Amino acid sequence: MIQDLMIERAKQLLLSGEITCAAGWKRGDFITDSQPAIFESLQELENLVYDKYCAANLSKYLVGLNLKEGKILVFLKPCDSYSFNQLVKENLIKRESVYIIGIGCEGNIRLEEMQGTELLERCLVCTKTEHVVYDELVGEQLNAREARSRFEGVLELEQMSSGNRYGFWHEQLSRCIRCNACRNVCPSCNCRKCVFDNNKYDTGQKASVSTFEDQMFHIIRAYHVAGRCTDCGECSRVCPQLIELHLLNRKFIKDINTLYGPYQAGEDISAQGPLTDFNAKTDPEPGIIHQGGQADV
Prior knowledge:
The chain is α/β, with parallel strands linked by helices. Helix content is 33%, strand content 9%.
């Protein structure tokens, strides 16, 4: 089993002194509850698990751990490696301080309504079967697989009337309880202090008092990660209200691809992001996409 190989390799690296700890997953209270964990000893590594419930993207957890002494081992699924690369690109992780073991992935299971068999939406559209960064690979790596277009949901929204589109987002965002789970799990959200935590302006409240505030929080967050979002889908996965937040991010990704050419955040650490490399002479003005009313989600 790939889990046994992961444990064995982590123990070897820990014994050799090459790493001081490992970031992986451990079993929670239930068999379906595989959660992020840090392992600092051989005994603790016996509790490392890897199964279809290990959905958490471990890249975000390295931002804080990266400040510790020594090298950290992290297990990354192919899609997670894009987030890792993006964090390195933004100088939030030191590449030389992390030892990456790439592991194969056949998709993660969604748990809402205790279904237990259906893949997460992000896995149904995922084509990222190769790691973009790693030190070594463990387990069988998958070949490229067929997946439906990740922009299907965005296209459906674009084809709606403005009234129906507003109704869709009103219904979605009005369910928000401002738990901040989407923000806290997002690899692209790394401000030292979020503007929405500023108690001076009533934005630090957990439960919002108006629909407008709900929309402002999520739309501003989507703008904030535009051009940097790797489409890891963590925001939708952790939302307790099952809000389809990934649709906002994918709308921005689709528009950026249309205006500036195909771009995948985190794929190439040396590539300049489309929104930070604007050429006034050759690049189109963003307003072009508003023609025909296609800019509104």
